[in-house]
Design goal:
By secondary structure, this protein is of the alpha+beta class. The chain has 16 helices and 38 strands. The radius of gyration is 32 Å and the shape is elongated.
C-alpha cells in the first residue's frame, strides 16, 4: 500500500449492538477496497477482524480490530468495535482516535442496548455519527419503525439520506435523497445500477430531499441565504452543510446497507471519502503540558498509543495514531511517559489479523508496531526535541468487583502476572492486591467482562482460578467514651520491661472542642491538654492523640511508642478485624521504671490499654455507602425501585434525563453484588448506572450481628 497524505486519510469506527453486522460490514469494505479478494463470514470464522480464538468461541467481537482499505484514492482506517456493553473500554479508546463513528443498526432487531451504550460514548466524546441501517433483507423489517425509534432515542439529528424501496428478503433497491437517484443491485451486490427515481417514490423522495436540504442549510448562514434565494442547494453545497452538521452533531445521516450481500457498501464508502473530514480538520488531542501540536506531516514526529495486544508468535503489538510528523521504519523516539527510548523496528498498515509492512505513516494515520519495551496504552512516543505527551484516554469506570484466587497456591504469582497483562491490553480492568482485604481484586464492566478473564486463564494459560465475591472494606469506630489502664511488666533476668499507660478514648468528630471533662460510668475525669497530634488515616478518618500527662509520669520520649501501639490496634479492630477510624485518645497518666522502661514496653502497654478501652466504648461497625444513579426506561422503573429497596437503598430523588428515568439513591456496597446482571435483567439490557463512594455509615444492628457471627466462625475455622 502506498503512503497516503494526511488529507487523503479517513478514520472511522464501527459501533453498535452485537449482531448488528459491524464485522460483516468491515469485511465488505475491505473487499470493495481490494484488500480482500473474497469476503469472509462470521459463522465461518474467517473474517479479517474477529480472528482470535475467544471471538470464535463466543461468536462475537471481544476486542476492537484495526482495519485499513482504499477507495477513491483515499485510505479509510476502520476500527471494528465490540457491541456488548461489557467492552465499553474498546469503544472508548477507538472513538478517541477517529473522526467519525458509523453506528450500525440491525434493522431486523432494532435499536439494541449496545447501540445505546455506544451512542452515549460517542456523545461524551463529541464524535460525529453516520447511522448505517443494515440487514435490510431480513424478514419483517420495518424501516420506518426503526427510524422513529432512532429519533426517539438519539434525537432529531437522525436524518434520512437513503431509504429502502423493498425492505425484506427481496431487498435490492435504495432511494438516495442526496443524489436523488435510485440504486439497484443484482443478486451478488457490488456495483449498483444508478436509475431515476420511479414515479411511485418521487413524492416521498422530494419530501425527504427537502428535509435534508434544510438540515444542511441550517448549519451555515451563507448556505441558509443561498437556500432562501434559490429554494434549494446544489449537491456540493449540501455536502458542505452536511459536513458542518455532522461536526456539531446536529446531523446523523442515515444510509442503507445489506453488508452480507455487499449492497450499499460502495455508496457508503464514497460518502465517507467525500464528507468525513481528514484527521487534520478535526480538533487536535490536547497535549498535557499545554503545547500546541499541529497535525503536520512535516512537523516533529509523535504518536499516541490507543491499544496493545499480546499475540502468539509475535509478542506485544502496539497500535497507534500518528499525531504529528511522519513515522518511518527504524526511527528512534522517546516514550515521554516513561522517559525511555524506543525504536520502531517495523511499522505496519493493519487489516485485522493481516499486517502489511510499510516504510512510513503520515500524520493522522493509524498503524501498528511490535516489540516495544516500555510502551503501553495512553503513552506518547515523540522526538526528544518536541517532548510531547498527549492527555490520556479516560476509560469507563468499573461497575463490578470480584476477587481472583489461584486454586493451586503455586500459581498465585502467575495469576497476578496474567491479570496485569490483561489490564495492559484493556485498561477498563483495574487490578490491585488489597492488603486490607487480603484479596487480589479485579474491577470490570460486568460479569461478562470477568468471564473473558476466566476464559483466558482456562484456555490460554491453563491456570485454575476461583472467582470470589470481594470482602467488604468495613470500618470500626466507637460510640461513647471509655477509660482503661494497662501495666506491661516483664522480668526474666537482666533488664526487664515496664510501662503503664492510663487513657480515655472517645468518638472523634471534625471541629469538636478540645477535651476537658469526662463522665464515664458515673465517675468524673478532668484532663489538661498539653499537646495533640492528628493522624490522617490512609483508610479514611482520623486518630487524634492527646497528651494530657501532668507531672511527667511518662517521659515524652515514650509517647511515639504509645502511639505506635495504638496504631497497631487501629489497623485491626476487635469486632471484625477491620480498620478503625475517628477516635480521640487522651493519655492522662502512667508510670515508668528508671531502668526497665523502654519503647517496646510502652508500645505494648498503649496497645493493650487501647484494646480494652475500645471494647468498652460501644464499638460499632461502619459500612461503605455509595451514591448511585440508575437510568432506566420508564416502563421498568417499578421493578428497578423494588430491587433497590431490597438492597437497603435509600431513595434520594427521581427525575428524567435524556429520555430515561433517573433514580438517585444511597446504597451499601455490600448490596451491590451482581447489580450489573440484575439491572440488565430488569431492563432488558437498556438500564445503566453510575456510582461513587459517599461515606461510611453505621450498619443496622441485625447486619452487625450477622457480621460478628461470620467473623467469629471464620476465626474458629482458622
Amino acid at each position: 500500500m502506498k503512503t497516503y497524505k494526511t488529507e487523503q486519510i479517513r478514520n472511522v469506527a464501527l459501533i453498535g449492538n452485537a449482531g448488528a453486522g459491524k464485522t460483516t460490514l468491515a469485511e465488505a469494505m475491505l473487499f470493495e477496497g481490494g484488500i480482500l479478494n473474497r469476503r469472509g463470514e462470521v459463522t465461518a470464522k474467517n473474517t479479517a477482524s474477529d480472528y482470535t480464538d475467544i471471538e470464535h468461541d463466543y461468536g462475537n467481537s471481544i476486542f476492537s480490530s484495526l482495519l485499513s482499505t482504499e477507495y477513491n484514492n483515499k485510505k479509510i482506517n476502520i476500527i471494528d468495535t465490540p457491541g456488548m456493553k461489557a467492552f465499553a473500554g474498546a469503544v472508548t479508546s477507538s472513538l478517541n482516535v477517529v473522526s467519525t463513528a458509523l453506528c450500525v443498526v440491525n434493522t431486523g432487531d432494532g435499536i439494541g442496548a449496545g447501540t445505546e451504550n455506544a451512542m452515549r460514548i460517542a456523545d461524551k466524546n463529541h464524535t460525529p455519527v453516520i447511522m448505517v441501517m443494515n440487514g435490510l433483507d431480513h424478514e419483517n423489517v420495518n424501516f420506518e419503525n426503526v427510524i422513529d425509534d432512532a429519533k426517539s432515542r438519539f434525537g432529531k439529528s437522525v436524518t434520512i439520506v437513503q431509504y429502502p424501496v423493498n425492505a425484506g428478503p427481496d431487498f435490492n433497491q435504495v432511494i438516495d435523497v442526496l443524489k436523488m437517484k435510485m440504486y439497484q443491485w443484482g443478486a451478488d451486490g457490488g456495483e449498483p445500477q444508478i436509475l431515476d427515481i420511479p414515479a411511485s417514490e418521487q413524492e416521498r423522495a422530494d419530501e425527504l430531499h427537502n428535509e435534508l436540504v434544510e438540515k444542511s442549510a441550517e448549519n451555515d448562514e451563507a448556505l441558509m441565504e443561498l437556500y432562501f434565494d434559490k429554494g434549494s442547494l446544489s449537491e456540493d453545497e449540501m455536502r458542505q452543510g452536511m459536513r458542518l452538521g455532522m461536526t456539531d452533531r446536529s446531523l446523523f445521516p442515515v444510509f442503507c446497507t445489506c453488508a452480507k450481500k455487499d449492497m450499499g457498501i460502495r455508496r457508503l464508502m464514497e460518502f465517507i471519502t467525500n464528507i468525513v473530514p481528514p484527521p487534520n480538520e478535526v480538533p487536535m488531542r490536547k497535549e498535557a503540558k499545554g503545547k500546541e501540536v499541529v497535525m503536520d506531516p512535516a512537523g516533529p514526529a509523535s504518536l499516541f498509543v490507543f491499544k496493545t495486544t499480546m499475540e502468539s508468535h509475535i509478542g506485544e503489538v502496539t497500535y497507534f495514531k500518528v499525531m504529528s510528523g511522519t513515522i518511518t521504519e527504524g526511527m528512534d523516539l522517546i516514550n515521554t511517559n516513561k522517559s525511555a527510548k524506543e525504536r520502531l523496528s517495523q511499522i505496519f498498515m493493519v487489516a485485522g489479523k493481516n499486517r502489511i509492512k510499510v516504510n512510513e505513516l503520515c500524520a493522522g494515520d493509524l498503524g501498528a508496531t511490535v516489540k516495544l519495551k516500555e510502551t503501553k496504552v495512553n503513552h506518547t512516543l515523540s522526538t526528544k526535541e518536541a517532548d510531547y505527551k498527549f492527555v490520556p484516554i479516560e476509560f469507563p469506570k468499573p461497575l463490578t468487583t470480584v476477587a481472583f484466587k489461584a486454586v493451586n497456591e503455586t500459581d498465585e504469582e502467575k495469576v497476578g502476572e496474567v491479570l496485569h497483562r490483561m489490564r495492559d491490553e484493556d485498561p477498563s480492568y483495574i487490578v490491585n492486591y488489597s492488603k486490607e482485604l487480603k484479596q487480589l481484586i479485579v474491577q470490570a464492566q460486568s460479569e461478562y467482562h470477568i468471564n473473558v478473564l476466566k476464559w483466558f486463564f482456562e484456555k490460554e494459560y491453563k491456570i485454575e482460578v476461583q472467582v470470589l465475591p470481594p470482602r467488604v472494606p468495613y470500618r470500626e469506630t466507637i460510640t461513647k467514651a471509655a477509660q482503661s489502664d494497662y501495666r506491661h511488666k516483664k522480668q526474666s533476668g537482666g533488664a526487664g520491661q515496664f510501662g503503664e499507660v492510663h487513657m480515655i478514648i472517645e468518638p472523634y468528630e471534625e471541629g469538636m472542642p478540645d477535651p476537658k471533662n469526662f463522665k464515664i460510668d458515673g465517675k468524673e475525669w478532668v484532663v489538661n491538654l498539653r499537646g495533640k497530634e492528628e493522624v490522617t488515616l490512609t483508610w479514611g478518618g482520623k486518630l487524634v492523640f492527646c497528651n494530657c500527662i501532668v507531672g511527667g509520669s511518662i517521659d515524652a520520649r515514650f509517647h511515639p511508642a504509645i502511639l505506635k501501639g495504638i496504631m497497631e490496634k487501629m489497623e485491626e479492630g476487635p469486632l471484625t478485624g477491620s480498620y478503625a477510624r475517628d477516635i480521640r485518645v487522651c493519655i492522662y497518666d502512667g508510670k515508668m521504671h528508671p531502668v526497665d522502661s523502654n519503647e517496646i514496653s510502652f508500645k505494648l502497654a498503649g496497645r493493650n490499654a487501647f484494646s480494652q478501652a475500645f471494647k468498652k466504648a460501644g464499638p460499632k461497625i461502619l459500612e461503605p455507602v455509595y451514591n448511585l444513579d440508575v437510568y432506566t426506561p420508564s416502563d421498568r422503573m417499578g421493578d428497578v425501585m423494588s430491587d433497590l429497596q431490597g438492597r437497603r437503598a435509600l431513595i434520594m430523588g427521581m427525575g428524567s434525563e435524556k429520555g430515561y428515568e433517573k433514580i438517585s439513591a444511597k446504597v451499601p456496597l455490600k448490596e451491590m453484588d451482581n447489580y450489573t446482571t440484575a439491572l440488565n435483567s430488569l431492563t432488558g439490557g437498556r438500564g445503566w448506572f453510575n456510582f461513587e463512594f459517599d461515606a461510611y455509615e453505621k450498619v443496622p444492628a441485625e447486619v452487625q450481628d450477622e457480621l460478628l457471627k461470620a467473623y467469629e466462625a471464620e476465626n474458629s475455622e482458622e
